[in-house]
Amino acid sequence: MDFNFSAIVDSKDFLLEGLKYSLTLTLFATFFGIVFGTLLAMARLSSIKPLNLAASAYVNLFRSVPLLLVIFWFYILVPLISGVQVGADKSAYITFAIFEAAYFCEIIRAGIQSISRGQVSAGQAMGFTYAQNMRYVILPQAFRNVVPLLLTQTIILFQDTSLVYVVGATDLLGAASKIANRDYIPVEMYVTVAVIYFTISFVLSRLVKRLHTAIAVIR
After folding, report:
1. pLDDT digits over 95-146, tens only?
2. Kindly report the CA angle at 65 between 59 and 68, in degrees rounded to 5?
C-alpha cells in the first residue's frame, strides 16, 4: 500500500489547528493546575482538619478515577443533572483543569516538604507570617526543586489531550480522525499524528532532563 504524502500536505492546515487546540488545552490546564494545585497542597499540609480532609478527598478522588471517565462525567452527566449544555470544548478545559490540579498538588506538596525545617524557622525568626513565609521562603525553593517534575507532568498532560476526541473536540488526534474518515487515509493520518506526538514529547523530555541536570549542578 502506498503512503499518500500529498494527502497529508493538503490537510496540514486542519492538523495545525488541531495541534494548536491541544497545545492551548495543555497550557490552560497546566496554569490552572499549578495555581489550584498549590492551594490544594497548602490545604493538605494545613493543621486545620476540615481543610486537610477536604483537600485530601479531592486529590484522592481524581487520582483514583480514569481521566476519560471524568471527561464523560462533564460532557454527559452535568447536562443531564443541571440542564445546561456544557459542550465538548468547555468539558475538555474544565475536566483537564480540575483533574490535573490533583496531580500537580502532590508534586508541589512534595516540593514543600523537601524544604528543610531550618528554612521555615529562619522565615519565622524574621517575623514572617505563615503566608509571607510561604510566599518568600518556602514556595520559591519548592518550585525550583520540582520544576522538572512539573514539566514532566505537563508532557504527560499534552499526550492525554488526545482523549478529548472521544467527545468530538477537534484536538490533534480529533483532527486526524476526521481527515482519515473523510479522505479514507487512516494509516497516513495516524502515523503522522504518532510522529508529531513522539517528536514533541521526546524533544521536551530531553530539555527537561537537561534542566534537571542544571538544577542538580546549582545545588
Report:
1. 999 999 999 999 999 999 988 888 778 777 887 877 788 888 888 888 988 9
2. 120
- Sign of the alpha-carbon torsion through 112, 114, 117, 121: negative
Residue 146 and residue 110 in contact, taking contact as beta carbons nearer than 8 Å: yes
Q: In this predicted model, what pLDDT tens digit does every residue of 8-31 receive, in sequence order?
A: 776 788 999 999 999 999 999 999
Nearest to 74 by CA among 62, 84, 86, 61: 86
Give residue for cell 478527598: 57
For 10, the grid coordinates are 493538503
Over the range 124-140, which residues count as b (16 or more CB within 10 Å of their CB) and which as e?
A: eeeebeeeebbeebbbe
Whether 95 and 169 have beta carbons less than 8 Å apart is answered as: no
Q: Within 10 Å of residue 218's Cβ, how many Cβ atoms? A: 7
Cell numbers given for 126: 524574621
- Residue (of 179, 157, 151) closest to 24 by Cα position: 157
pTM above 0.85, yes or no: yes
